[in-house]
Write a structure and sequence with these properties.
It is built from twelve helices and seven strands. It is α/β, with parallel strands linked by helices. The protein has one domain: Rossmann fold (3-Layer(aba) Sandwich), CATH 3.40.50.
Length: 269
């Protein structure tokens, strides 16, 4: 069994080496004028082309994006890239908030659903629910890739991180990819500090992912920021884009930029 799993991992590594080849259509989508201008300004911190290439995205994949950002209108930072990229040959499933859990969750989901209704690039997105506690996201063993961007700290704080990892694992095909981008804490941070600051350690992320069955394939420093000390008055939300302190020390935090982030690629053996 051990050698069988190793063989699967090696095959996936070879398969995903194709992601190093330039994807002209992905470039076209990222450079499209249809993207929200404020979102484009954040590309230097979020590095969408390099990040999605690292995860091995392909146009014919079935992909779940976990809790895509509702944020302030219009919301859906990565959705603006994933939806048109997958529209013709693949499928994007948005696992958004359960509107019954709170009014603000309902509001964020409605905002996201409004975009799907009126924007042609979003017309083929399929919606599902990521509840707390999580339930089955879609039919098991049918998804090529599950992606999460800066969500782990929320699930950790709510006490449901392991359960989110489990339903993500179950949805993936064998050989499917789980791609994670998350605010990276120093390894000295304990669980309490992670919950209050919004930063999560790599070691905890890897440990919990492996506990549900994932295998870590690769790490990347694509989304690293060495200027981020991780010690801020209002945690990660002190930094842009939130700038929780408002005008106080705004120049200082803009110069630091967005948070230092881990970028991890797991597979389901």
């Amino acid at each position: 069994m051990r050698f069988f799993c190793l063989s699967i991992v090696l095959n996936i590594l070879i398969f995903n080496s194709n992601s190093l080849i330039s994807d002209d259509f992905l470039n076209e989508v990222i450079n499209s004028k249809s993207r929200t201008p404020e979102y484009v300004l954040r590309d230097k911190y979020r590095n969408p082309k390099e990040t999605l290439d690292f995860f091995g995205i392909k146009r014919n994949m079935k992909i779940i994006e976990l809790q895509p950002s509702g944020g302030n209108s219009p919301g859906g930072w990565y959705t603006e890239i994933l939806a048109p990229y997958l529209k013709e040959n693949g499928l994007l499933i948005a696992a958004h908030f359960n509107p019954r859990e709170s009014e603000w969750r309902a509001k964020m989901r409605r905002s996201y659903e409004e975009r799907i209704k009126y924007e042609i690039n979003f017309s083929k997105i399929k919606m599902t629910v990521l509840s707390m506690p999580p339930q089955q996201l879609t039919e098991d063993n049918t998804i090529d890739m599950v992606l999460t961007f800066r969500n782990l700290h929320n699930w950790l704080k709510s006490g449901y991180l392991k359960e989110v990892l489990e339903v993500s694992f179950n949805s993936l095909k064998h050989g499917g990819v789980f791609g994670v981008v998350e605010h990276r804490a120093p390894e000295s941070f304990d669980l309490s500090k992670m919950k209050t600051t919004g930063y999560v350690t790599e070691s905890l992320t890897i440990k919990m992912a492996e506990q549900v069955g994932f295998v870590l394939l690769e790490k990347s420093e694509i989304n690293a920021n060495k200027l981020d000390t991780k010690i801020h008055p209002k945690g990660v939300w002190t930094l842009p884009p939130t700038l929780k302190l408002g005008k106080q020390d705004k120049k200082k935090y803009l110069e630091i930029g967005e948070s230092d982030r881990m970028t991890l690629k797991f597979i389901k053996p």
